[in-house]
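Replying to the earlier thread about multi-chain prediction with a worked example.

Input:
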Amino acid sequence: MTQLQTGTPLLTASDYRRSAQRLVGSDVWDFIEGGAEDERTLAANLRAFDRVRLRPRVLAGVPDADTTVSLFGTAYATPIGIAPTAYHRLVDAEGEVATARGAGRAGALFVVGMFASRTIEDIAAAASSGLWLQLYWLRRRDVMRDLAERAERSGYGAIMLTVDVPRMGRRWRDMRNGFAIGGDVAAVNIEPAVMAEAHRRDEGGSALARHTAGSFDPSLSWADLAWLRDCTRLPLVLKGILTAEDAALAVAHGADAIVVSNHGGRQLDGAVASLDALAEVADAVGGACPVLFDGGVRRGADALAALALGARMVLLGRPPLWGLAAGGADGVAGVLRTATEELAHAMVLAGRAALPDLDRTALRPTSLAGGDA
Ligand SMILES: Cc1cc2nc3c(=O)[nH]c(=O)nc-3n(C[C@H](O)[C@H](O)[C@H](O)COP(=O)(O)O)c2cc1C
Ligand SMILES: O=C(O)C(=O)c1ccccc1
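Result:
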């Protein structure tokens, strides 16, 4: 059990959340917590897990659960990893370097964001578990190629291309707060000219939204993926797939893995809850490549549900930021270990010894109906 300065034991992700909220400024908190527009998809991501009911098997002879998993030849102690999020130095002076240390202690995958506030190389030096690098598709393809090459040189295990941001979702909280990245926090892996706009606090509006409108390439289509594929020998993972149609296209275009995700409810408000899209996507992929999942995972039983529906690994977006804010690398490790212990506990109580034993028989069929409000 992790116990940080507050003296309160941090037993669950929501304990870390409460602790983090006390320590983070309100505009940064809104940036982390917020979703697009009326935040309906954000809420739906969480609610979808409340509908899940498990089908525990008894007398299964399962004294302990094995949570190990391997992906692209790298072994992880847990199938619960860290989704890419921007600017970790907003909540901790060491930023992504501390996150990498925490992920390493938990034996978890850490997907470093393109908008990381520490260098790709410094993060790699602090890591002891697998790292991947997330990219957005920039108009400046030379910048993307440079980042992919640096990741490969630094030992990253895959490139994750985020495909659900042709433009930034509209986040009323950030727009009302006039939120901008300031002080000494910056996307240090991207040359300043590409980033200049994001760092300028302007009257009203969200500088992030304006910046991404200028630097992201919104005309990207399936045919362009071949260019990125040729830039790197690393596996290419597509993040932000929500339909069977796009899952089939991703496989046809040679994706090495896909991530079912609605970007934590931060892009298209009204989009399907992540969990409700998972069965459809897993069926369409049919084992052709690994399927990963993110969106609303807050406890071990949530991870169990996503794994049972066909995810090989689940990623957490906000909870590691809560851990980082609450307690640096220890907090990150605490969030990941807590969720992993909850998962192992749920597996024992459900009579499933290892991750391959998690399939749809672990879930009540009505849990799968996707009858989202
Ligand atoms: C503060 C914040 C920043 C994010 N930045 C990125 C990013 O730079 N790239 C990306 O692909 N996704 C980004 N995401 C989305 C996450 O990778 C992930 O899809 C989402 O947070 C998962 O949902 P969860 O927060 O409910 O776990 C961000 C999410 C948050 C909350
Ligand atoms: O992707 C996001 O959700 C996000 O908030 C973000 C912000 C700035 C740069 C890149 C991503």
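Residues 31-32, 45, 83-86, 113, 115, 134, 162, 239, 261, 263-264, 266, 294-297, 316-318 surround flavin mononucleotide (ligand 1) (CB under 6 Å).

Feel free to reuse this layout for your own posts.
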